[in-house]
Design a protein that fits this description.
The chain is an alpha/beta fold and 239 residues long. Helices cover 34% and strands 23% of the residues. The chain has helices spanning 14-25, 44-57, 76-89, 107-117, 165-170, 184-193, 219-222, 224-234; strands at residues 3-10, 33-39, 61-64, 92-97, 101-102, 121-129, 149-152, 160-163, 197-208. Strands 1, 2, 3, 4, 5, 6, 7, 8 and 9 form a nine-stranded mixed β-sheet that branches. α2 (44-57) links the parallel β2 and β3. The termini are far apart.
């Protein structure tokens, strides 16, 4: 049975991160897994809080990116590259669960099973919903989909997505554009270009609190002019 690596990139959002981690630790998973948090230059106060939580959990690894790079946040590219190389060394699949997502007890198991059973699967993603169960960002397009597993041509967000070992072996993340910040669109497209299919599991919803991990992005909804001004002038959020 193939191993599993689970990662959560974190930037300051300690309360939501705790919810994310506890949900994963309470999951029913039938294979060995390693869970790693990548702390992307959180404040000193929040880094200390995160270190205390990791010590209390005892079964979660913590990587403080400030110890290995001086590149300013976001460092999603570095996280993906490190995680890919580790997964390949240990013949593992890679599950990304972001720090504004809360999985259900069987979410991880079902994604792993799906990624294994669907022989052409590159990415297996869980649909996201709000607290009331309504499909929300970034999968609004799937709101009318029946519950099940759907091959999708639109990109799979990395809110909660399994990147299969076969995809990791086929596409070297060192080829990703270092001028970008986020890579779910690019990797989804490359997966399909390489002959894989990407699947959205609408039967496995996860609660998503959009942008809880990047609070400034809430401006997109409360003050869109300011959001786009910051995005343009500071070069944030390059997809």
């Amino acid at each position: 049975m193939r191993a599993l690596h689970i990662i959560t990139p974190v930037k300051d959002s300690i309360p939501s991160t705790i919810q994310t981690v506890n949900a994963i630790r309470n999951s029913k998973i039938d294979r060995e897994y390693i869970y790693t948090i990548y702390n992307d230059f959180s404040s000193d106060e929040n880094t200390a809080a995160l270190e205390r939580e990791v010590a209390r959990w005892g079964d979660v690894e913590l990587v403080n990116l400030k110890d290995i790079t001086s590149h300013p946040s976001p460092n999603y590219l570095l996280v993906l590259q490190i995680s890919q190389q580790r997964a390949l060394r240990e013949d593992a699949d890679l599950l990304i669960v972001e720090s504004d997502v809360e999985v259900k007890a069987d979410t991880v198991q079902k994604l792993v099973e799906g990624g294994t059973e669907l022989e052409d699967c590159g990415i297996a993603a869980a649909v996201t919903v709000d607290e009331s169960g309504a499909v929300n960002y970034p999968y609004e397009y799937a709101a009318e989909y029946e519950k099940g597993v759907h091959a999708v041509k639109r990109h799979c967000s990395f809110c909660c997505s399994l990147l299969t070992n076969r995809l990791l072996r086929a596409f070297d993340f060192k080829e990703l554009n270092p001028e970008k910040h986020w890579f779910d669109v690019t990797i989804s497209q490359r997966s399909r270009a390489l002959g894989f299919s990407n699947y959205l599991f609408t039967s496995q919803p996860v609660v998503h609190r959009p942008h809880a991990s990047r609070p400034w992005k809430q401006l997109k909804y409360t003050n869109p002019l300011k959001y786009y001004w910051i995005k343009l002038t500071k070069g944030f959020d390059k997809i």
